[in-house]
Amino acid sequence: MHVILMGAQGAGKGTQAERIAPQFDLLHLSTGELFRAAVKHETELGVLAKGFLDRGELVPDEVTIGIVDARLQEVASGAIAKCGALFDGFPRTPAQAEGLDRALASRNDHIAAVIEIRVPREKLIVRLSGRRVCPSCGATYHLEFNAPQVEGVCDRCGSALVQRPDDTPDAIARRLDIYFAQTEPLLNYYDSRGLLKRVDGDGEIDSVTDAIVSALISATVNQGT
Q1: Catalytic-role residue among 107, 118, 156, 164
Q2: Which of 127, 131, 132, 197 is flagged as catalytic?
């Protein structure tokens, strides 16, 4: 069983992935973590990826898919005792989706479901623009959902909190524009195959988790997996 979790920045993909993966005994995979691991261990593909990352360039699809496939092979071989993978924020383009399909098909496997967590754009901007970080210790806060005990001051070390440049409303709006423009063809790709399930992400975390679990159970029952 392989599942893809999609959603714009601030939709809560990471939070939900950490909850959903253990429930279905899935390996939580995000390309960011895979890149860091491959670079750290200096694998052949990791060295290639590092070159692009160091230059501030996007890692080519074939390198990304190769790194993902190497991790999936560990699951298929039993080296990692999991029932499948939960992809967090990957694939990002139809080309990556097609590459992932080929990698899975090579071992007679497939994607069971694609879950899109949908949150109104204005809510996403509120969620993202309210983030504050501590430049000293790295602690993260949110003005509405996780406020520090003293406004503007880090609970851990007492340093003044700051807002990252890419967390301003204008910067967030540009990031969301890019996300929705790039993601629409990918959503259409999976929707045309009957794999896409949409979940309302504008609610309590537990409610969103329950909705995702229901969607996955429905998808697996329908496919007989």
Answers
A1: 164
A2: 131
